[in-house]
């Protein structure tokens, strides 16, 4: 047991009944304060502020005056503040620890980005303002567009899509518009690799296409021969992620693009994993016709919480005429926003959103680009790949990599190392919570049994990666040593213990119901 300089134990005595911690009367564990619901803490018959009833006030509510108590709990101001601070400490965040979610790129969000996004003139503008009052913001959008096109080697970008799936929709709508303009309305079949993100086939169907699945080969990449067998005069295109969802670079990407183009289709590239190749590979050089870029994944704008997101979509020369409005263009008189289809060159398929995009996301992404420079963006990609391969090398002796060889920005393991242990991928992930880590992506991609997809991103130090790998190594060895009960009961140290996720998703409890008083009470 570790000791401090006075010889006292630095940990509580082990107590198996509480998962390794001694019981406490308060329900708290040191600075980890127990926190019930605000309804359980407060009372609905009082308030935190004592105000006298107003006198001589004539109501103007037209008979809609409240006749019963509002039913919200009343707390003193310090109590209310403490409640929400305590809740905030229960959230896992990139500022708290390593976030290993694969295919999500949970990057550090530099505070410089936040400072720039809050600058007066950027943070407080309104989309209905006249263009002449927001010329700086339009120029910022134009500058961001320039660098997105430069990094991808494409001639056109639509900034308005609000997220990755929205960017996919933008790209596929442009492909459909191009096919319709060619009079090829029978091209409605889209090829989709079996490891694709679920949004890919969903987006294709939303645009009126049918999908045809392409299997992977033994290396986890698109089976080229299977792809060739699927080609035909009804193929509209392919939706392919590169690097793919298994964390592997599609080595045949150029040949795939050539095959699709020769058959008369278009190449949509899912840009979710662009973080692995920025500054190293320009997707336009690989033959892509459209690709969305997740600003929250690749350029460090905040991720999660339901938004706001941003998924700009770049286009090749073949699809550029069909890109939607609004568009940002630089003229002899400066930057301007083209908002009407009649004012745009080409044949825009229409408008995707009411306004122009997410200004805060644009500010943050451009700040990230300019603060890194071209060499810094390239190094970030290289470091992301290095970190993932370091994790792969550190853990492959105790966990089982899904595929042989090196990976790109994320390391993928399957559950073979847990065979005959009685421990599942879910059990392993729950045990990670007890160790203070958010679990990796589980059971995805679906083509890998019991998948565990880990993406460390470029922002993690070697010491941080070593600590994470030490924990996973210890857990893997514990599972093989027959400590299955430890995993089945996990997490025991989290505020909420093991849940039935399926039942919770299908029957969520969204309303607090006060307990019913018994006769004895």
Mean pLDDT: 90
- Strands of the largest sheet, in order across it? 1-7-6-5-4-2-3
| Major β-sheet annotation | 7 strands, mixed
The fraction of residues in strands falls at: 5-15%
| CATH homology superfamily name of the largest domain | Type I PLP-dependent aspartate aminotransferase-like (Major domain)
The rounded distance between the terminal residues' Cα atoms is: 46 Å
Catalytic activity: N(6)-[(R)-lipoyl]-L-lysyl-[glycine-cleavage complex H protein] + glycine + H(+) = N(6)-[(R)-S(8)-aminomethyldihydrolipoyl]-L-lysyl-[glycine-cleavage complex H protein] + CO2
Keywords: Oxidoreductase, Pyridoxal phosphate
Enzyme class: oxidoreductase
Protein name: glycine dehydrogenase (aminomethyl-transferring)
3D structure, described in words:
By secondary structure, the chain is α/β, with parallel strands linked by helices. The chain folds into 2 domains: 112-369, Type I PLP-dependent aspartate aminotransferase-like (Major domain) (Aspartate Aminotransferase, domain 2); 374-506, Aspartate Aminotransferase, domain 1 (Alpha-Beta Complex). It is 32% helix and 10% strand. The protein contains 14 helices and 13 strands. It has helices at 38-41, 77-88, 111-117, 135-152, 164-181, 199-206, 224-230, 253-262, 295-298, 359-395, 425-434, 462-480, 484-488, 501-506; strands at 156-158, 189-193, 210-214, 235-241, 266-270, 290-292, 313-315, 327-331, 334-338, 400-401, 411-414, 441-442, 452-454. The strands form 3 sheets. A 7-stranded mixed beta sheet has the order 1-7-6-5-4-2-3, with helices on both faces. A 4-stranded antiparallel beta sheet has the order 10-11-13-12. The chain has a two-stranded antiparallel ribbon with strand order 8-9. Residues 380-483 form the Glycine dehydrogenase C-terminal domain. Residues 1-29 are annotated as: Disordered. It comes from Hyphobacterium vulgare.
